[in-house]
Amino acid sequence: MKFTANKREAAGTNASKQLRKQDLVPGVVYSSDMEPVNITMNRADVDQIKRELGINSVFTLDLDGETKTVFVREIDSAAIKPIVYNISLQAIKKGQKLEMPISITVVNEEELGDADGVAAVNTFEIDVVADPSVAPEVIEIDVTGMHIGDTVTAGDIKLPEGVELNQDAEESIVSITVPDEEPEEDANETEEEAEPEVINEKPGEIVEEDD
């Protein structure tokens, strides 16, 4: 895919707010051989990048007539409202490798060796060094046949060719555990105590007990 961006001079919170009012998204293009460049992109284009490409994706950017291959480092957006605050891009050369996170997902949890086991994910990303143009968006961890007490470390994960692990190989990524048991409610605590029945009481009268 190819998208267009323009260089911008104004920076700061107020300038960014004004750009968003014009359906523009502020951003930055980083590069290993030049200073960061402040840019603006059409919001519709950034929405498409977020929706169809996502983080770690690679596309062609026309920056004021200069064509660059860029890698999506980050898209800063609101958690609830459909607002994109900023986009960060990294200009790359063909075959260049970068440090980057890759999301992980667990598959075949229903095929665990212990029927009562669950796969507890300790971290949802691993750090790698890879060429973004060939790096996968997600790495699957297959837990078929694993038992309670088993662990998948970062070093256990089979990475695609050309992707190198960039973190402690002994770090636990997925653990097979038993589900937490919910504490039983105490019947004495939950059962409401009935008020004692007062016999021969009339409205407005106090019943006195005989000594």
TrEMBL record:
The keyword Transcription does not apply. GO terms for biological process: translation. One of its GO terms (molecular function) is structural constituent of ribosome. Residues 4-88 form the Large ribosomal subunit protein bL25 L25 domain. CDD domains: Ribosomal_L25_TL5_CTC. InterPro entries: Rbsml_bL25/Gln-tRNA_synth_N (IPR020056), Ribosomal_bL25/Gln-tRNA_synth (IPR011035), Ribosomal_bL25_b-dom (IPR020057), Ribosomal_bL25_C (IPR037121), Ribosomal_bL25_long (IPR001021), Ribosomal_L25_dom (IPR029751), Ribosomal_uL5_bac-type (IPR020930). Belongs to the bacterial ribosomal protein bL25 family. CTC subfamily. This is one of the proteins that binds to the 5S RNA in the ribosome where it forms part of the central protuberance. PANTHER family: RIBOSOMAL PROTEIN L25/GLN-TRNA SYNTHETASE, ANTI-CODON-BINDING DOMAIN-CONTAINING PROTEIN, RIBOSOMAL PROTEIN L25_GLN-TRNA SYNTHETASE, ANTI-CODON-BINDING DOMAIN-CONTAINING PROTEIN. This is Large ribosomal subunit protein bL25. It comes from Aerococcus suis. The gene is rplY.
